[in-house]
Amino acid sequence: MVSRLLPQSPLRRKEILAAYLFLLPTLIGFAVFIVGPMFAALGLSVVQWNLLSAPQFAGLANYQKLLSDTRIDDIYLTTFKIALATMALKLLLGLVLAVLLDQKLHRWLSGFFRLSFFFPYVVSVTAVALMWSFLMNKDLGLVNYLLGQIGIERIPWLNSSAWSPVAVVITDVWKELGFYVIVFLGGLQSIPSEFYDAAQVDGANRWQIFSRVTLPLLSPTILFLSVIGMIGSVQIFAQPQILTDGGPGDATRTIVMYIYEQGFRFFDMGYASTIALSLFVVIFILTLLQFRLSRRWVFYQ
Question: How much is the pTM?
Fold first, then answer.
């Protein structure tokens, strides 16, 4: 407290000014691309606007429409199912692959595998979705051809309400898995070797070392990937849009697709903004819940 009351030296003030200047581009970006659109959506949620005529004040009409929308519950449920499936698979497969890559491999072999897993992550999501739409084609796709070689009948990956969500999940997991592998690998390599040495001295086997040493010390990494994974998965758009266009019916229609549909197909920007605000509230609550529950299972050194 005393240091705060004392006058700051010119050098200290220059350092603080330099810090704010370095932060300025990020602050400007946050204000323009995050805070600005949020206030814009809040303003649009109380008007009727079709992008062609002037906006007209509608009060709470869009919010009443949201509460009476018979489709939105099913669409939110579909979104959560896809999000939970993709999150679980990415966390599980990412951890398994990271543990395997963390073993002692030849340098070039380890680099090759890391690049192979990470490469899909840097490829355009549109290109990935288009590639998988060809691979999962019922009649001409490579996936059904390979399944046919082992006696499995052709699966309507993109035309069935049962299989189309599976196709979306597979595409998203294949696209994003490399990021999870790299982050998990960084978390594994940041664990001090002294913990493993102490566990081996105590006579712990491999499973005990993994469950009682690796997982607890990896919990901050798991929390980070869970939070950003949940936020990204709930906002999934391109994969179902390109693969199935939300169909059949609403089997793969996600909430972001519904926002796009209301805003740019039906030209109801007011209602689209209202749905977007509801999604913001849902993501905020889920994130808050994750951090609240993390107090029970996240351990920091």
Answer: 0.87
pLDDT exceeds cutoff 90 at 7: no
Q: In the chain, what are the domain boundaries?
A: 70-294
Helices (H), the chain: 2-5, 10-30, 36-44, 61-68, 72-101, 107-122, 125-135, 142-149, 164-189, 193-201, 206-209, 215-234, 238-243, 255-264, 269-294
Closest C-alpha to 252, from 175, 170, 176, 166: 166
Local confidence band at 301 (pLDDT 50, 70, 90 cut-offs):
low
The CATH code of domain 70-294 reads 1.10.3720.10
Query: Using one digit for the tens of pLDDT, what is the confidence trace for 261-278?
Result: 999 999 999 999 999 999
Q: What percent of the chain has pLDDT over 90?
A: 60
289-298, Cβ contacts within 8 angstroms, sequence gap of 24 or more = 290/223, 290/226, 290/227, 290/230, 291/223, 291/227, 294/219, 294/223, 297/219, 298/219, 298/220, 298/222, 298/223
